[in-house]
Known about the structure:
Layout: E1 2-6, E2 12-16, E3 27-29, E4 39-40, E5 47-48, E6 50-53, E7 56-59, H1 61-68, H2 70-79, H3 84-94, H4 98-109
Antiparallel strand pairs: 1-2, 1-3, 4-5, 6-7
Amino acid sequence: xxxxxxxxxxxxxxxxxxxxxxxxxxxxxxxxxxxxxxxxxxxxxxxxxxxxxxxxxxxxxxxxxxxxxxxxxxxxxxxxxxxxxxxxxxxxxxxxxxxxxxxxxxxxxxxx
Length: 112
């Protein structure tokens, strides 16, 4: 059974998959979301991704947007690992398509 705590706006502030670790004020949630992310940002400016609606864990508008942009975050993380300018320079000099091939490979792993 999954437990969660919610704030006064019915936004989930924490999850517990083990009842023994959940605080007394935690309530039953119907399921733990796949990505287990309940909020992003620093606590004083946190954006909540899920809220409890009639006892059901439900994505907030921010949560829906966050999930919709997941592919972009995943692509960026991989793009940041590349030395793209050097790859482009080398491709131009050598007549290769290494950079284009790598970008297409990343896009294939994280489609829109």
